[in-house]
Amino acid sequence: MEHNAPEEEVLLLDQSFLSTVPEATMQVPRFAAWLEKQDQTPAYETLARLLKLLQWQRGAKRWLLKTPHHLEFLDVLVKVFPSAKIIHTHRDPLVSVASFCSMVFQGQRIFSDQVNAVEVGQHWSRKTAYMVQKALAYRSQAPSQNFLDIQYQDLTQDTWAQLARIYQWLGEAWPAEVKAKMQTYHAQAPAHRYGLHQYALEDFGLHPDRIRQAFAQYIQTYLSKPNS
Prior knowledge:
12 helices
């Protein structure tokens, strides 16, 4: 985290007390269970008002939002932001679940004196699978033209081609000055600049077969065939 860098909008959802930040920073299973049963509409309406305020201050014309929180609530997101275009990036769950558990584990160590890695693994392996299933259910009946699927590996290994693909999908030109700024930032922010992030499912008491089973539908739908 950097003091002058972009941050995820999930922190704005904290203002409504309906975000997943508490369960990502603390072990609060009762709150997490309660949150899954709540109507997120008031939270997203608050987010919309806060974004309008920031847009008025900055003069922005378009928002680029990014948080895994939305996977669970795509129906509410689209209801509150009906013109939203959604770029859905896909990564092998055996890697992404381990990475996410590692991030949560390190985050919880900031807020708690004792953090149990196995508890983190149990909670977030179930939670991430639940979020993905919710997204799959919504996408099965949503207009496909509102989504662009991109493989995470393609995004990291062929970044500029994927960005060009995004602009084409949006039907917008890619201004040369914007591309130049992106290239400058990319050159100044190489991978692992703060050190190599090492993690493994076994660190959190998880087994690859369990993850494959939990994400079987997702893997079959988005990772076993080329992008459309």
